[in-house]
Protein: N-acetyl-gamma-glutamyl-phosphate reductase
Organism: Bradyrhizobium symbiodeficiens
Amino acid sequence: MSSKKIGILGASGYTGADAVRLLARHPNAEIIALTANTHAGKSMGDVFPHFFMLGLPKLVEWEKVDWSRLDAVFCGLPHGTTQEIIAAVLKANPKIKVLDMSADFRLRDKNTYAQWYGHEHRALELQGEAVYGLTEFYRDKITSARLVACPGCYPTAALLALVPLAKAKLIDVDDIIIDAKSGVTGAGRGLKQNTLFSEAGEGLSPYSVGTHRHAPEIEQEIGVAAGSAVTINFTPHLIPMARGELCTSYVKLKGATPDDLRTALEQAYANEPFVHVASKGVLPQTQNVRGSNYVQIGVVADRIKNRAIVISTLDNLVKGSAGQAIQNMNLMFGLPETAGLEQIALFP
Amino acid sequence: MSSKKIGILGASGYTGADAVRLLARHPNAEIIALTANTHAGKSMGDVFPHFFMLGLPKLVEWEKVDWSRLDAVFCGLPHGTTQEIIAAVLKANPKIKVLDMSADFRLRDKNTYAQWYGHEHRALELQGEAVYGLTEFYRDKITSARLVACPGCYPTAALLALVPLAKAKLIDVDDIIIDAKSGVTGAGRGLKQNTLFSEAGEGLSPYSVGTHRHAPEIEQEIGVAAGSAVTINFTPHLIPMARGELCTSYVKLKGATPDDLRTALEQAYANEPFVHVASKGVLPQTQNVRGSNYVQIGVVADRIKNRAIVISTLDNLVKGSAGQAIQNMNLMFGLPETAGLEQIALFP
Amino acid sequence: MSSKKIGILGASGYTGADAVRLLARHPNAEIIALTANTHAGKSMGDVFPHFFMLGLPKLVEWEKVDWSRLDAVFCGLPHGTTQEIIAAVLKANPKIKVLDMSADFRLRDKNTYAQWYGHEHRALELQGEAVYGLTEFYRDKITSARLVACPGCYPTAALLALVPLAKAKLIDVDDIIIDAKSGVTGAGRGLKQNTLFSEAGEGLSPYSVGTHRHAPEIEQEIGVAAGSAVTINFTPHLIPMARGELCTSYVKLKGATPDDLRTALEQAYANEPFVHVASKGVLPQTQNVRGSNYVQIGVVADRIKNRAIVISTLDNLVKGSAGQAIQNMNLMFGLPETAGLEQIALFP
Amino acid sequence: MSSKKIGILGASGYTGADAVRLLARHPNAEIIALTANTHAGKSMGDVFPHFFMLGLPKLVEWEKVDWSRLDAVFCGLPHGTTQEIIAAVLKANPKIKVLDMSADFRLRDKNTYAQWYGHEHRALELQGEAVYGLTEFYRDKITSARLVACPGCYPTAALLALVPLAKAKLIDVDDIIIDAKSGVTGAGRGLKQNTLFSEAGEGLSPYSVGTHRHAPEIEQEIGVAAGSAVTINFTPHLIPMARGELCTSYVKLKGATPDDLRTALEQAYANEPFVHVASKGVLPQTQNVRGSNYVQIGVVADRIKNRAIVISTLDNLVKGSAGQAIQNMNLMFGLPETAGLEQIALFP
């Protein structure tokens, strides 16, 4: 099978770099364009020295890319700047497949978007066209999509744990508490004081409590599963590790037992290559998925009656971003869904 | 004022060592005995090289200590072995003050003790005599006590956040979810695979979910505050940092607002030297208290109606153990409560 | 090409686990036996939960393995216990290929072995037969070998930097100072106080200065290159990271310039798939090779006249252990040398 | 004794903050002015939340300070901006004591300064007046000084290890190799990509090899000790820890033994409160001094004949900066030299 020709927009960020890491070894992909407007003219080895062993195209400004040569583009640009660039790319080459790893096309409701992102959406038709790229729930739509809005890292972890339970009406969707913990790469490569080693190391900080932009995305999809609008608690914490995300979700049971929850999850993911439900008594931990596209989910009984705890973990840069984008690309090109994605977690 | 003569049992563990760190610079204390049965004969510098600048007594077996020379003893021995040793110490010197940092005397109910620790209590009269050493709630009893059972690190963090709210009936005590995060020193200095650097680093693990022995201690004290038995959710996570503990408590409001909760906490701790309630909008983080005896508590509104989030943080080895023990000792000897304890957090 | 049938002895240690990680995805390998005598009967998921996604054989005692079914065995057992077990394996199946990752067969001189390991070697004929498995220097011998003694992690890093320079007589081999830094996995998975997270984290410790067992291995091979016995300085430091090793080697020049050193290294490794010489001005760092089989080497001029600094880095569990063993296995079976080993470093 | 009134310039940086941490608990000091021009108007709790328990003056612009009210000023401003500000301060209040923690007055030779800092010195008379603030070597001069140029963190660690040996002519000063390792706070609080948690964590990077500005400072002082100009090797490495510095110095012996070196150091520091020479066989580690003003030095025999290894460690923000400045302030005011500085290392 000939290789698909790939461009990566925003290759100087962490999600862009993880897309490079995976695509450079993908059996059916060839990276032929890399953009990073503030680093145009540099080699990737200048901005990410761990790519010293790869021959990669130089970084260019996105405006310089010849879109007609590309089969697919991965977009790791900041939220807000993405929508207009993707509109331009699709105008230049309407057949190109777009894997957007930003938040720009994840929310279906234009008002919700405007409320959380502070401005009207600037590519409304594309917002309508975009498919939410949580592979396990939207596989069919993704397969035939042109533009896939890959979910945020937290939503992927939370939704894989909760959607099957909401769908099966095993839990009360009006009483979902998601205590979320993320490694520091989740904050990106931009320079911020709170992500300096000396600030984030050896300590633990809750942040954006009640205001994190992944909350409406989670509510949107649990709402779809439940058939009604929901409001959730979503409380993120910054953890002194580079990669990894773990959601501890506290749920109220609706006539179900914790074992029923586990069974429902096992059934939902019985044929999924990347989502594993842990046996009773086994607790997921981020170490188990670091650097991999795998997700691990476990269910534990709560000491409070009629409550349970659902724990889910993934690598925020892989299944939480670049890996899931590649999984979707595989579907869109009719490739084996797992192609290029079967790396085992790097532990220790 | 003449110095109080102090012995530390179990000086080769982390709580023992932090007691040494603080007491060696305490203006009214003199360390004259250190025990560690498996290291008897060694100097403290052999087992904790960061004490190279101190002249300290050699480690001896606890049976070798002349209790009549001591005014107070700090006990950092493992759970279970403590009760008989303390009984022997008090028999040898009934006037000695005992600051127990183990779990042996924390639970008042002998059945609860037996259920959670797997054996009958072996010093029942002392269990009855012991005062629960959460300074802010039991100051009067501590002042006149002979044996103080210093609380666990998690209970101190959780109870300081929740007891004033339970007492004031602002929250539903049957729906308390405590998502707890601890640094690795919480697991002690014993050799365990999961606390190796290569295992605990760069990752995050829930552990003892539903089975952690600090749960009954929290329930006991919230029950006292509420006037009825309660069952709570307590879900601990191991975080890749050495020190620090943060509890994110999710509570259901009983006709109160999040601001009411903050006000109640501010009133409860208005005159407390070590407990600070953060202003609205300020989120506690473990970095703020590392190495110090301070506690920081914050309140945030939940997006779910009638719910709030209470966040509390402390250093598990200081206010969560040795520091609080010294705070209690100061009370017991009529010393200024803050003596030797005003170190500011070490950040970064 | 049919898959080679592989057994891994000592699969519950870190080098064993990294061999599993890589071999489970190797295109020409099938893991059919895993041993760990203290964990016999368990699944690999019990001892390394990050393998949850793999179907692997259960752990058994090494005595239970049917060696006739195996094409190759990787040995990750502790030093000292290995020699007799390998002798037994080769007696049971003389055609099996042995990739030993322990130190047992690395030293060619029996007296040096006895001096550094404290006992006579217990399989002297095999010691004579074993080929030192530093692929880049012994490729031909490895290709036809039955028993390969894969080098230690430090020796691989140091020798790749220094051997070409010693061979070309560009440096004074009697004045080599190797300041070595290693991540904590280098100390293995055994329970030791100094490798606990709370001890090794947030700090830096020199260790085994002047007494580390990798010194004679480095001296042996530099001696071969120089044609005379040498004594080196080798000073290891424990660094708070899990993986990675970096050697900063200080050398005295013999009529050469730092650029001459770089040129000599570039020539030596021009056709090597895994060894890269950094351009002038680029400094190697462990982050560039984490989780990968790559090695990066750089040369910097010293401010002291006639001196230079050679910096080399690798992942101690990959090119420093399991990865190099697989690279050697590929040679021994006539497979492409890079098969299963082209993962890019996991950064961040 | 009445408290000395203190101002801290550059209080929003790490050295400024550590001066606050220590001075806020100093028995003879009162902080009455804090400056940080980019944060003027904020409280210290806004820029360093771990000071929540302190009542501190608001941050102001340095131009707003009334210098006549101050007895001493600590200066934690960036290199280059300091010289003119200090000139202005001393003009406004010629009796004020200045503890400069920047590099501006450390080099005595104006040409060396211009060469390494890229511009002519802008306060040459003050450069002449300034006393190099390595307390142990310049105690008398410091006692009567008005302006003390506190040494860099690396020079303090290196010089305490090497100066007594150079003075006693026990080592060859033309063959000194200093392999230096620093925690990330050494790079300051400014936003740089290489000090982000995700970049600096879990990895190790040499940096500024041959070009670090602490090299001429070390050469200046070894030159003074040796009585002749010297050129040294100084090779810094960035280590994934916040605090701590360790220098592994490789020296050639001049007719001396390693034990002679240790003896010389023991004699040099016999009466020093903060410098400890480790017993034979004991290796210094940064964990032993974290957060403290102590220095630990050890000597080990090299395997290469006539060579030795001298290892020294300190906390870069304490004895490497703010702590040493306070030690000097104590001398300048006739206070006990150890006042406010006897905190024991925070371990773990």
Summary: Chain A has two domains: 4-129, 154-316. The interface with chain D takes residues 14, 183-185, 189, 191-193, 195-202, 240-242 of chain A (CB under 8 Å). The radius of gyration of chain A is 19 Å. The first strand of chain A starts at residue 4 and ends at 9.
